[in-house]
């Protein structure tokens, strides 16, 4: 019985010591947690204080309250370590990089919250190549730019100047014209706006399209086709589709487009006029000889 009591006493004292240690261990753990959390809490309190100051200025100064609030929120982000580390651009093919960089207007190390995505988008939309732009701020450190570019459609010649245009007729560049591969050539005032419609018609008549060097707008109202052979095809105003269909049929039967002609005039609905080259004049010596023999 004595040994049993002794064991019970030892167990009781050990249990008591563990129970006494528990509060002290808990206090130590809580103390360590408070110590680790202090820097983050201070940063959060600092950012909150700056934001609160900005809100106070917003309410107290009606004239400059918006700008003041923006500046103080940006300062709060800067205090919390929110800086631009990377600018990611998606969708760029032809837009010059330096123009994108200038339009975005941000450098590494700039405050993230001081950057305005809407203002950057407005600047990007002024670039000729850009059809649409989307700018996002991805915390903590990334600016994402998504671009939709205009697609080069044709080379536009007007008053001796050459430019690359899209299907809507917008000029996207006047440099490095040979960098975009073979493109249709449209000539004259108004050709940039209406060239895509005529080109779509020509796609259905490959023999004509393959022989066409340029689509020439005449008087901003109708078209001529300048063929590689030098022949001009005069199309009627507003009746391009039936005229092209008739021209394709005549070429299929008579190889009309391969004849040495000056012009094929299709402006009249009930007739076609073929203008041939004038006969070659004999050389001067042959003329003199002919006169003596007579």
Description:
The structure is a single chain. The protein has 3 domains: about 40-80; about 80-150, Ubiquitin-like (UB roll); about 155-275, Rossmann fold (3-Layer(aba) Sandwich), CATH 3.40.50.11690. Helix content is about 45%, strand content about 20%. The chain has 8 helices and 12 strands. The strands form 2 sheets. A 9-stranded mixed beta sheet has the order 6-5-4-7-8-9-10-11-12. The protein has a 3-stranded mixed beta sheet with strand order 1-3-2. It starts with a helix and ends with a helix. The model is unreliable at about 1-10, about 35-55 and about 65-70 (pLDDT under 50).
In brief:
The chain is of the alpha/beta class and 294 residues long. It has helices at 2-60, 65-79, 97-104, 117-124, 191-202, 206-211, 240-254, 284-293, and strands spanning 86-90, 130-138, 142-149, 154-158, 161-165, 171-173, 185-187, 212-218, 222-227, 232-234, 261-265, 273-276.
Give helix and strand order, one letter per element, not per position: HHEHHEEEEEEHHEEEHEEH
**What's the number of structural domains?**
3
Task: Say what the CATH topology of the largest domain is.
Answer: Rossmann fold
Approximately what portion of the residues adopt beta-strand conformation?
15-25%
Placed side by side, the strands forming the largest sheet appear as 6-5-4-7-8-9-10-11-12
State the distance separating the first and last CA atoms. 166 Å
Per CATH, the superfamily of the largest domain is: Cell division protein FtsQ/DivIB
Computed over alpha carbons, the radius of gyration is 40 Å
Query: Which term fits the overall shape?
Result: elongated
The count of β-strands is 12
CATH architecture of the largest domain: 3-Layer(aba) Sandwich
Percent helix among the residues?
40-55%
Pick out the low-confidence regions. Answer: 1-12, 33-55, 66-70
Structural class: alpha/beta
Largest sheet: 9 strands, mixed
Q: What is the CATH top level name of the largest domain?
A: Alpha Beta
What is the mean pLDDT?
Answer: 81
Q: State the helix count.
A: 8
């Amino acid at each position: 019985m004595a040994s049993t009591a002794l064991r019970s006493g030892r167990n009781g004292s050990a249990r008591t010591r563990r129970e006494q240690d528990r509060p002290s261990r808990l206090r130590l753990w809580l103390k360590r947690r408070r110590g680790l959390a202090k820097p983050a809490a201070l940063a959060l309190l600092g950012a909150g204080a700056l934001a609160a100051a900005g809100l106070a200025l917003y309410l107290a100064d009606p004239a400059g309250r918006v700008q003041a609030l923006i500046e103080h929120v940006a300062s709060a982000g800067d205090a919390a370590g929110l800086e631009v580390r990377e600018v990611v651009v998606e969708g760029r093919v032809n837009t010059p990089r330096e123009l994108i960089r200038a339009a975005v207007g941000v450098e590494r190390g700039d405050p993230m919250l001081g950057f305005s995505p809407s203002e950057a988008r407005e600047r990007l939309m002024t670039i000729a190549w850009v059809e649409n732009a989307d700018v996002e701020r991805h915390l903590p450190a990334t600016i994402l730019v998504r671009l939709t570019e205009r697609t080069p459609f044709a080379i536009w010649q007007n008053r001796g100047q050459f430019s690359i245009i899209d299907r809507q007729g917008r000029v996207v560049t006047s440099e490095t014209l040979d960098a975009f591969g073979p493109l249709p050539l449209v000539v004259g005032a108004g050709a940039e706006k209406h060239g895509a419609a005529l080109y779509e018609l020509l796609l259905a008549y490959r023999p004509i399209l393959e022989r066409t060097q340029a689509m020439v707008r005449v008087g901003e109202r109708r078209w001529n086709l300048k063929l590689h052979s030098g022949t001009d095809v005069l199309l009627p105003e507003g009746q391009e589709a039936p005229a092209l269909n008739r021209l394709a049929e005549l070429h299929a039967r008579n190889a009309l487009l391969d004849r040495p002609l000056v012009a094929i005039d299709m402006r009249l609905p009930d007739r076609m006029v073929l203008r041939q080259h004038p006969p070659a004049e004999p050389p001067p010596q042959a003329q003199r000889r002919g006169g003596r023999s007579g």
